[in-house]
Amino acid sequence: MRRAPRDNAPQPEPGDDDTPLSRAERPSKSALKRQMHDLQSLGVELTQLPESRVAKLDLPDALRDALAEFRRTRSHEGRRRHLQFIGKLMRNTDEAPIREAIAAFKLGSAKETLALHEAERWREEMLASDDAITRWLDRFADTDAQQLRSLVRSARKDAKTADAAAQPDQRHGRSYRDLFQLIKAALAGDAPSATGDDAEGEDDDE
């Protein structure tokens, strides 16, 4: 009996990835492009994190250095090139902790913004009506009622004086800012107070 001719074609080694199936499983060029664009977008958000939060992340030294260099760069073209470089470095970086840090920062910023808007709303309502003061004192019984009413009266007086003098830019004096600080502190769960020294740097409501 004649034996069948032996097939001398090289057989794929175990674990050889260059097979039709493995090639089909590889991401397409468009998928790789989308992934790169996504990583660059993530890199942009990473550059917007406060340095104190970036310092807490376990980042490769190369990526940390690139972020520092990006912050030092002022030219548009230079920053664009650095962002591309950061995107490339992100390929070999665990992106999950970075996404978590960015999400936490955005959530905190959103909550802070809502709190500021609520404080502004309360202030405007108190300046417009004594009923708002009563509602506030019902809700925040620990508030120094005498201090609160004094700030409201003073802020109203400043506004009327500025309007009478046709100086609308002078409507918001010190009492207006101090009132905001008192309201914001109470909403945050702190002891409501609005001393002059504490309110000195308050411009975040403007």
Automatic annotation (TrEMBL):
<keyword id="KW-0694">RNA-binding</keyword>
<protein>
    <recommendedName>
        <fullName>Dual-action ribosomal maturation protein DarP</fullName>
    </recommendedName>
</protein>
<keyword id="KW-0699">rRNA-binding</keyword>
<dbReference type="InterPro" id="IPR023153">
    <property type="entry name" value="DarP_sf"/>
</dbReference>
<dbReference type="InterPro" id="IPR006839">
    <property type="entry name" value="DarP"/>
</dbReference>
<keyword id="KW-0690">Ribosome biogenesis</keyword>
<feature type="region of interest" description="Disordered">
    <location>
        <begin position="155"/>
        <end position="175"/>
    </location>
</feature>
<dbReference type="Pfam" id="PF04751">
    <property type="entry name" value="DarP"/>
</dbReference>
<comment type="function">
    <text>Member of a network of 50S ribosomal subunit biogenesis factors which assembles along the 30S-50S interface, preventing incorrect 23S rRNA structures from forming. Promotes peptidyl transferase center (PTC) maturation.</text>
</comment>
<feature type="region of interest" description="Disordered">
    <location>
        <begin position="1"/>
        <end position="34"/>
    </location>
</feature>
<comment type="similarity">
    <text>Belongs to the DarP family.</text>
</comment>
<keyword id="KW-0963">Cytoplasm</keyword>
